[in-house]
């Protein structure tokens, strides 16, 4: 009889072990609750030792996989609960390639991150925050908010057309937005997303920013992407030209809004502050930061036009 694999689950995601047990009721599963901490695996030395000695399969947050990468005795497969792989890639490059297969979470992030982007675009275009403040003041005045743009009038630039970026681009395109996809290398015709109106290279980023109402970064953290969006690059958003339909109808002085759901080190805080204060950006929606948690002293918390969320655009519950 084939021996049953020992599965270990070590994560901050509440209820993940129970969800897996429902799917695999006959599988031997050891559940470890990881403490979400900035440094270290977030589990005890005894729990690390148990994984090293007994685990055949490990479903875990990246810091746990790093902790056992070169000491696991039986491990055949480690599945990360995170979408990002840069932490593991850097760890492997700095040490050595592990003897087991490593995979990342895929697919589950697409819909929720699409919803995050769409929710923020709609909220800004329909003046949701301003109307909420008006409600708090018990004021009835619709005149300032009667003018808004429909989704079909918007041009959205997507930086990073991986799995998640393509899903965001597809949704935006299906809702009528003009979508410009920016990639580092040319994309073959058979791999292009049909909802992407225009493909551009990162070398043309300044021209793309100048015609975009929204710039959505879903870029990973790589040597090529870190610091890509400097304040000087954001200056191209100042005099935005907007295309409506098939003709160049008019120039709008509506500033571009930057949405970041990729990695925080694509742009530094000072560049965002400078871009907002100089009028290059009309606002920003930030879910990721170079330093997390974002320090209370950060100017981003109170910067006009900036929405700060605590890295929650992707799934954070077991069911998700």
UniProtKB/TrEMBL annotation:
<keyword id="KW-0520">NAD</keyword>
<feature type="domain" description="D-isomer specific 2-hydroxyacid dehydrogenase NAD-binding">
    <location>
        <begin position="119"/>
        <end position="313"/>
    </location>
</feature>
<dbReference type="Pfam" id="PF02826">
    <property type="entry name" value="2-Hacid_dh_C"/>
</dbReference>
<dbReference type="GO" id="GO:0051287">
    <property type="term" value="F:NAD binding"/>
</dbReference>
<dbReference type="InterPro" id="IPR036291">
    <property type="entry name" value="NAD(P)-bd_dom_sf"/>
</dbReference>
<dbReference type="GO" id="GO:0016491">
    <property type="term" value="F:oxidoreductase activity"/>
</dbReference>
<keyword id="KW-0560">Oxidoreductase</keyword>
<protein>
    <recommendedName>
        <fullName>D-isomer specific 2-hydroxyacid dehydrogenase NAD-binding domain-containing protein</fullName>
    </recommendedName>
</protein>
<dbReference type="InterPro" id="IPR006140">
    <property type="entry name" value="D-isomer_DH_NAD-bd"/>
</dbReference>
